[in-house]
Amino acid sequence: IILYFHILTRTLFGILMDSNPLSVYVMHPFWNLVVKFLPTWLAPNLITFTGFMFLVWNFLMLAFYDFDFTASSVGHEHVPSWVWVSAGIFNFLAYTLDGVDGKQARRTNSSTPLGELFDHGLDSWACFFFVATVYSIFGRGESGVGVATLYYILWVVLFSFILSHWEKYNTGILFLPWGYDISQVTISVVYVVTAVVGVETWYQPILWHFLYRDLFTFMIIACSFTVTLPMSLYNVLKAHRGNTLKHSSLYEAFLPFFSPVLLFILSTLWVVFSPTGILEQQPRIFYLMVGTAFANVTCKLIVCQMSNTRCQALSWLLVPMAGVVVLALSGVAISETLLLYLWTTFVILAHIHYGVSVVQQLSDHFNIFAFSLKKANSD
């Protein structure tokens, strides 16, 4: 992977704005208390990575008991209650660790651009794990959410995430979306409630024919289009009026959206025109492929907005993906499912390789270890 690291010589710490009342008045005081119990030798990046792995474990745990998202449907063996309790605990632990990693960095005087990139980079991948894991609560049955509907909901979440970093790319300020803290606390509670009352509770309508699945869908879409998107546009327009916008050209300002939109087009073409109905056959793997490819594209934007460099118009990963989609839709591939598995494996390995390469280069440049507070030449 070609790494365009002007960040090595032009690193800038971004300004972060968090005005969510839940975060300001409840969670930050809680995190300030928690961080006091952490040993001072504990590296912030290790905290970040541990939190992320809790989300991965939740995904793997639910994949074992509900691989095709049918376990919550009527007539199927449901996910054990202890799994839901574990998912709630692990999700809240991940959320807490994501909140204290920065505080630990400031507490130990170890704040670095690597930490910021590591945190936001893993957050971009975490978006998929949140959505896929929550999906198992409702599933794809008669009272659940269809796999195609969930696919578009996933994209709403992904674009909501990238909006924040698009803001920072244009304004230099990262405005944290209000929906994040509320959703994390809610998700953790819902997991535990599901363990107590059972998934059958979510079959019941809230009011008339309005089901819990409809509330789930409505809240995500409404939050994105009535809060996240308007606030992002407002912040960028405000910077434009104040002559503080970093990119005066409309083309340059919207350049970060090119690769995510192209990824959306390619994956949607595959979904709509798949000869074998690949999304119906392998929804979990398809979501994993899309979420990982999105994280790879987003990480490159994060590098650009951190280093104050121009965004790359096209992510190289989308070039072979276009070929894969053509191969799948043409029916030339012996097995579309096998093709999806092979491509997903490639995307995951490519993204991990990119992440390791970035972390290694930054660690070498700043003379630090990624998961230790020791200096690289301290010995």
From TrEMBL:
Organism: Gouania willdenowi (Blunt-snouted clingfish)
Keywords: Acetylation, Endoplasmic reticulum, Lipid biosynthesis, Lipid metabolism, Magnesium, Manganese, Membrane, Metal-binding, Phospholipid biosynthesis, Phospholipid metabolism, Transferase, Transmembrane, Transmembrane helix
Family of this protein: Belongs to the CDP-alcohol phosphatidyltransferase class-I family.
Gene Ontology MF term list: ethanolaminephosphotransferase activity; metal ion binding
Entry cofactors: Mg(2+); Mn(2+)
Protein name (database record): Ethanolaminephosphotransferase 1
Enzyme Commission designation: 2.7.8.1
PROSITE patterns in alphabetical order: CDP_ALCOHOL_P_TRANSF
Subcellular localization: Endoplasmic reticulum membrane
Biological processes, Gene Ontology terms: phosphatidylethanolamine biosynthetic process
Domain of life: Eukaryota
Transmembrane segments: 46-67, 79-97, 117-138, 144-164, 215-237, 249-273, 285-303, 315-334, 340-359
Catalysis: reaction(s): 1-O-alkyl-2-acyl-sn-glycerol + CDP-ethanolamine = a 1-O-alkyl-2-acyl-sn-glycero-3-phosphoethanolamine + CMP + H(+); CDP-ethanolamine + a 1,2-diacyl-sn-glycerol = a 1,2-diacyl-sn-glycero-3-phosphoethanolamine + CMP + H(+)
Pathway as given in its UniProt record: Lipid metabolism; Phospholipid metabolism; phosphatidylethanolamine biosynthesis; phosphatidylethanolamine from ethanolamine: step 3/3
Function: Ethanolaminephosphotransferase that catalyzes the transfer of phosphoethanolamine (PE) from CDP-ethanolamine to lipid acceptors, the final step in the synthesis of PE via the 'Kennedy' pathway. PE is the second most abundant phospholipid of membranes in mammals and is involved in various membrane-related cellular processes. The enzyme is critical for the synthesis of several PE species and also catalyzes the synthesis of plasmanyl-PE, a lipid required for proper myelination and neurodevelopment, from 1-alkyl-2-acylglycerol.
Keyword Cell membrane: no
Membrane topology: Multi-pass membrane protein
Main subcellular localisation: endoplasmic reticulum
KW Ribosomal protein (keyword) present: no
GO cellular component, as recorded: endoplasmic reticulum membrane; Golgi apparatus
